[in-house]
Amino acid sequence: MKKVTNTLKKLWQDESAQGATEYILLLVIVVAIVLLFKDKIMGTVKSKLGDLDTGIQSVNSNF
Questions:
Q1: Residues 14, 19, 24, 29: what is their CA dihedral angle, to the nearest 10 degrees?
Q2: What pTM did the predictor assign?
Q3: Which H helix or E strand runs over 14?
Q4: CB-based contact 41:34 (threshold 8 Å)
Q5: Which residues of the chain have pLDDT under 50?
Q6: Quick check: 2 and 10 in contact, CB under 8 A?
Q7: Tally: H helices and E strands in the chain
């Protein structure tokens, strides 16, 4: 019984894969947020790219 208890204690204290698990969970959360707000993100990016294009055309027309 003592052997089983010691083995369980070692398993409980083992944190070797904890870092990888945290990164995987963080990645899952970020992907979920991106998927939830995909349309809003795409709209904002398109708007900013349009503004950038307008600014570049404005600079080109001045030369």
A1: 110
A2: 0.53
A3: none
A4: yes
A5: none
A6: no
A7: 3, 0
